[in-house]
Amino acid sequence: MSRMTRLLLSLVVLSAVTGCGAEQPNKAGEQAGAATPPPATDRAAAATTANTGEADFVKEQLEVGEKQIGLARLVSDRATRPALKRFGETVLRDHQQATEALRQIAGRAGVQKTGQPEQLKVEGERLSKLSGAPFEREYLDEIIADHEDEVADLEKAANGNHPEIRQWATNTLPMVRRRLEEARELRKTGPTGGDASR
Fold first, then answer.
1. What gap in Å lies between CA 51 and CA 54, rounded to an integer?
2. Counting beta carbons within 10 angstroms of the beta carbon of residue 90, is it exposed (0 to 12), middle (13 to 18) or buried (19 or more)?
């Protein structure tokens, strides 16, 4: 092989090697770009923004909480049984804490607060006209129906996607179940029954 041929072969090999080396980083860069996850701030925003179903759940639970707080405030004035008065105080305290925690989550999740629940206004006006045994029966019927619905909603939300809403539902569910059982026991014992509070 002549010296000139060897030189030409060396140049061809060198240009081929240099060309391949130049393409490799570009391809690697393109692949890395395709697999690059979104920035951490985008992931955090996605994790804290509630979807439509979650936002509806939060709004509904805020309304339920406000309704329970409003009705529980009537118990101290309208009920006669000490057991029911203590139960009303417990419901008031528990729902105030749960509702305040959910309000904070709602703010972070971008859920707009609603006004006073219409149901609270209607039920509040109706129950405020009663006292003694009639009030106790109506109040317990109302709180049992609300808590039965709330248990079902919380069980569903406890398996949801939004981490904070899921955790709130998981933490709130045992309290709502306890209050539901206590309300059922109070209704069973009736206005003249024994002290069923815990």
1. 5
2. middle
